[in-house]
């Protein structure tokens, strides 16, 4: 191609069938071919159970979402040096260090260090797997709650529960597959399906829980799903009406013979009618024994607010719901940490301990993944004298059940708990690990939207293999 | 114009065995592809059938009538002002669509009362359902769309997520849509209004059924449909209740939800 003036690079590429343009085009065509073959599952039953990438360790998830950012140094991340250095202005913070508001003790056979704020949960220490090196990108709340759910603070993306349902389908076709209990108002994005089909979005069940004491009042009312009950008609009258609707649908189907859409409509009405029957029954907690109700703390005002959704969550997962998220608010303690953290911990301690014990005794814990945590932790140094500021550089999550090591602690923060230093685990890594536990490869669980394949973990995420049992 | 006047565009969606066998996936447009009605169209069609559809633009936005607390987790708890437009006899855009039992005050005012209690003080912990579900009769394009909060009439029928760029809406078929059409107050209200319209405009049952089919589907009922409708109406204890349930059933069918 040298020597003759006509053989410029441009000319070569214009004429040669293997020019860059051709190479690029061939690549595009191959890709288009591939993507049409691996097209999204446009199946009649998008919620049918789907095979996993490899054998799962957990089949379902209960996510206890503590909104506001519970302090890790006061709860599950024991820092003796923080006690020793209390009052000094050293380390990462600009303000003086504040000792944990409650003493820590070693618990269970495993000797995990757990704060006295969680006396009941501490009795189940050998079930807990502490992840003490979480960190995330985006500090200000409530925005940080979103990446915790979707992996992305900037754009609207499907939530963890929606990805789970998309990946696994559901085991009970008369209930929603992804349930968000007591979700705060205007938080639809956190349990939404974004570009995934709408069937994968979380169904918000129960009253919305506003942060603060309003929560206690709101939770007293019966939880409900929108439009789950007809305000006028009896069940029999409605069945008669539905039979008429289905008769008209069937006549249309007979007239037009091949109409997959109409078949889908017929199916969805029967499903809705079943849901209408089963959901209120499932949410009626009076069928539970007194002992079970007490186990979840329903006998006390302070604990019943969170105990009720915890008991509901057990009933949901038992019935085959894939992903249940329970929200609990008001963990954002910039001041009065001692009193507020004590109150919040007390509200959730007995219900969570009850949930773990109950799942265990029913044999559900071995394949149910329970996770607890907030969108970030809090600083070791004091804010406003009596509180702690947001801390996204290091905080603690715990998991229990479904394929994680019990009585185990993974990773650590620095001597005061300011930042994760050892075996750091980003939110993306945490997401990748959850999907891995469910038998899904986070790099393969993709959905094509806007011309490319999307994942929960974007281009990040490493599975934390050390915590797998 | 060239597109809409083309043969392919004007094809019927009617099924034909010979054509189906030649083009089972309809890749060569052997027939028109049945499409689902979009959320807005579905709601507007219900209002149009009941005769309630208000083509006027509403004054202002419903969003303005709700305090910030409802739109965001950090908003202050505010006081709901009784909006001028919801007073009885207010502007044409906010005419009540509450059905036969509508009393004084627009449905919005009633809705606000439900939300805020007698004192008009809004407490977010007490919100039951979506505040944007108030039964207003104007066209769906004027319904409020706020971040994280959509009117249910739009939300369940694949409305595009407002905080994303969506090139094409999903076209899903979910039980939530079925529950909406079976149980939602708005749908029930439109059915009742349509039922009373049928009773006013025609006397005997057969012509009421035929009128309903014309208003809802734009065609006459077939023999079979007429028979099924008549036997359904015969079972009803109360004539107007039965007629309202019949109208709701028409709204809930696959036929109403598809463009053929």
What does this structure look like?
The complex is a heterodimer of chains A (469) and B (260). With 469 residues, chain A is an alpha/beta fold. Helices cover 34% and strands 16% of the residues of chain A. Chain A has helices spanning 9-15, 20-37, 80-84, 119-122, 145-150, 160-168, 214-218, 235-256, 260-282, 290-295, 301-318, 337-361, 427-437; strands spanning 60-66, 104-107, 112-115, 128-135, 178-181, 203-205, 323-328, 368-373, 377-383, 387-391, 395-401, 408-410, 412-413, 420-422, 425-426, 447-449, 452-454. In chain A, strands 1, 4, 5, 6, 7, 8, 11, 12 and 15 form a nine-stranded mixed sheet that branches. Chain A has a two-stranded antiparallel sheet with strand order 2-3. Chain A has a two-stranded antiparallel sheet with strand order 9-10. The longest helix of chain A is centred in the C-terminal third of the chain and has 25 residues, at 337-361. The radius of gyration of chain A is 26 Å and the shape is globular. Chain B is mostly helical and 260 residues long. Helix content of chain B is 42%, strand content 2%. Chain B has helices at residues 7-10, 17-22, 39-50, 68-71, 107-116, 152-155, 175-183, 185-201, 205-217, 223-235, 239-252, 254-257; strands spanning 35-36, 258-259. In chain B, helix 8 (185-201) packs across helix 9. The longest helix of chain B is centred in the last third of the chain and has 17 residues, at 185-201. The two termini of chain B are 20 Å apart. The model of chain B is unreliable at 73-129 (pLDDT under 50). The chains are: A alpha/beta (469), B mainly alpha (260). Chains A and B meet through helix 7, helix 8 and helix 9 of A and helix 4, helix 7, helix 10, helix 11 and helix 12 of B.
């Amino acid at each position: 191609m040298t020597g003759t003036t006509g053989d410029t690079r441009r000319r070569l590429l214009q004429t040669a069938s293997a020019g860059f343009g051709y190479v690029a085009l061939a690549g595009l065509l191959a890709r288009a071919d591939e993507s049409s073959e691996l097209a999204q599952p446009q199946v009649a039953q998008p919620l049918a159970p789907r095979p996993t990438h490899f054998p799962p360790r957990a089949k379902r998830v209960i996510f206890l979402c503590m909104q506001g950012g519970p302090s890790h140094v006061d709860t599950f991340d024991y820092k003796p040096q923080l006690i020793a250095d209390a009052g000094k202005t050293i380390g990462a913070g600009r303000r003086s260090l504040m000792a944990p508001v409650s003493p820590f003790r070693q618990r269970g056979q495993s000797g995990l260090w757990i704060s006295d704020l969680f006396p009941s949960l501490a009795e189940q220490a050998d079930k807990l797997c502490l992840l003490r090196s979480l960190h995330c990108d985006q500090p200000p709340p409530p925005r940080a709650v979103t990446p915790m759910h979707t992996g992305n603070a900037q754009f609207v993306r499907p939530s963890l529960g929606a990805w789970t349902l998309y990946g696994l389908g559901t085991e009970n076709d008369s209930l929603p597959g992804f349930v968000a209990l007591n979700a705060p108002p205007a938080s639809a994005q956190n349990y939404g399906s974004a570009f995934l089909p709408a069937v994968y979005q979380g169904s918000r069940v129960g009253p919305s829980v506003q942060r603060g004491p309003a929560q206690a009042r709101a939770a007293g009312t019966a939880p409900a799903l929108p439009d789950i009950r007809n305000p006028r008609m009896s069940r029999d009258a409605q069945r008669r009406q539905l039979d008429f609707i289905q008769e008209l649908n069937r006549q249309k189907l007979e007239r037009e013979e091949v109409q997959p859409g109409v078949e889908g409509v017929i199916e969805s009405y029967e499903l809705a009618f079943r849901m209408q029957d089963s959901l209120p029954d499932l949410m009626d907690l009076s069928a539970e024994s007194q002992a079970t109700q007490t186990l979840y703390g329903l006998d006390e005002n302070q604990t019943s607010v969170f105990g009720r959704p915890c008991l509901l969550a057990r009933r949901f997962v038992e019935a085959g719901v894939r992903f249940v998220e329970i929200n609990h608010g008001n963990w954002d303690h910039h001041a009065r940490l001692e009193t507020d953290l004590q109150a919040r911990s007390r509200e959730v301690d007995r219900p969570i301990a009850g949930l773990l014990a109950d799942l265990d005794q029913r044999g559900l814990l071995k394949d149910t993944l329970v996770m607890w945590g907030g969108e970030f932790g809090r600083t070791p140094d004091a804010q406003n004298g009596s509180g702690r500021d947001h801390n996204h550089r290091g905080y603690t999550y715990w998991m229990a059940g479904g394929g994680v090591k019990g009585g185990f602690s993974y990773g650590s923060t620095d001597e005061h708990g300011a930042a994760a230093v050892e075996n750091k685990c980003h939110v993306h890594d945490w997401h990748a690990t959850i999907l891995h536990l469910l038998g899904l490869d986070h790099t393969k669980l993709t959905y094509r939207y806007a011309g490319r394949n999307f994942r929960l973990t974007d281009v990040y995420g490493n599975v934390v293999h050390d915590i797998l049992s | 114009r060239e597109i809409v006047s083309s043969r392919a565009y004007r094809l019927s969606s009617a099924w034909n065995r010979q054509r189906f066998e030649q083009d089972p996936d309809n890749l060569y447009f052997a027939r028109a592809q049945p499409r689902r009605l979009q959320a807005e169209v579905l709601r507007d069609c219900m209002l149009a059938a009941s005769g309630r559809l208000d083509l006027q633009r509403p004054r202002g936005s419903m969003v303005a009538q709700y305090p910030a607390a409802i739109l965001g987790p950090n908003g202050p708890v505010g006081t709901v002002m009784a909006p001028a437009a919801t007073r009885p006899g207010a502007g044409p855009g906010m005419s009540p669509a509450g059905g036969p039992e509508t009393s004084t005050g627009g449905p919005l005012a009633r809705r606000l009362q439900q939300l805020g209690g007698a004192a008009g003080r809004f407490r977010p912990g007490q919100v039951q359902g979506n505040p944007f579900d108030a039964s207003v009769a104007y066209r769906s394009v004027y319904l409020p769309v706020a971040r994280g909060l959509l009117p249910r009439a739009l939300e369940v029928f694949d409305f595009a997520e407002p905080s994303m760029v969506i090139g094409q809406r999903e076209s899903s078929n979910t039980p939530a849509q079925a529950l909406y059409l079976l149980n939602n107050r708005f749908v029930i209200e439109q059915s009742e209004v349509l039922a009373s319209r049928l009773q006013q405009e025609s006397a005997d049952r057969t012509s009421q059924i035929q009128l309903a089919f014309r208003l809802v589907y734009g065609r006459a009922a077939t023999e079979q449909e007429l028979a099924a409708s008549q036997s359904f109406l015969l079972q009803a204890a109360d004539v107007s209740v039965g007629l309202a349930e019949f109208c709701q059933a028409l709204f809930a069918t696959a036929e109403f939800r598809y463009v053929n």
